[in-house]
Amino acid sequence: MNRILVAALLGATLICTSALPANAAFNIKQQESHHHIVELPLLSLKQFKKLRKQHSVLVLDTRSGDDFLKGFIPGSVNIGFKGPFDTFLEQVIPDKKQKLLIVAEDQDRFTVAERLSQLGYTGAMGVLDSGIDGWKRLESTDSITNLSAGKFGKRSGSGHIVDVRTVKEFDKGHIDNAMNIPLIDFANFGNTLEKDNMPLYVHCQSGYRSAVAVSILRAKGFKNICNIQGGYKALKEEIKEN
Predict the structure, then answer these.
(1) pTM of the model
(2) If 0-12 CB within 10 Å is exposed, 13-18 middle and 19+ buried, where does residue 89 land?
(3) Which of 81, 87, 153, 184 could form a disulfide with 239 if both were Cys (CB 3.0 to 4.6 A apart)?
């Protein structure tokens, strides 16, 4: 089986301990004793699907929000690797023993696996070898509408506007009639929303958090969801703000 070898290293520079004072050399050896190599398997589609059926397994998709919204494995959660990945990974998935199956861009597979190891996520079970393209060839995907701020401003009909920024950000300015539901608690996020089949228009400041948020809401069973591209930065130029 192909494997990604993840070295959890404190630095890339090799240091000759014999040239250092005894205490310094001892400390380095202590640090080296804590280094370990984590073997994170590259999973075939068959292996991935089998593991996905296990209890309490979460599929973590680390592609960009825009790519995720176009097509993703049903039930998966998006936390884009090219962004504030560490911050939102630890907010959304605080349990570092959570069983995780990873979807990543080919060029990111090693670094994603390495970062999970460095952050202490011991529940990572493997990376889908064929990526989302391999899944799409044989399995169905889900998608979420990615709506521009301009089209949102011209929309017809009613719906709920969900602002997932922090309370502090919201208080500095927000869109009329928006509900502030900060994306800070994965376990409870969205629990105050009713599944009334009215559209949910979700935004953050620039678009990163809202992609995370809509993936969580879809995984929790919300169907009529739209992500607003560009977030509040784009919205405030298009429509009235408070």
Answers:
(1) 0.83
(2) buried
(3) 153
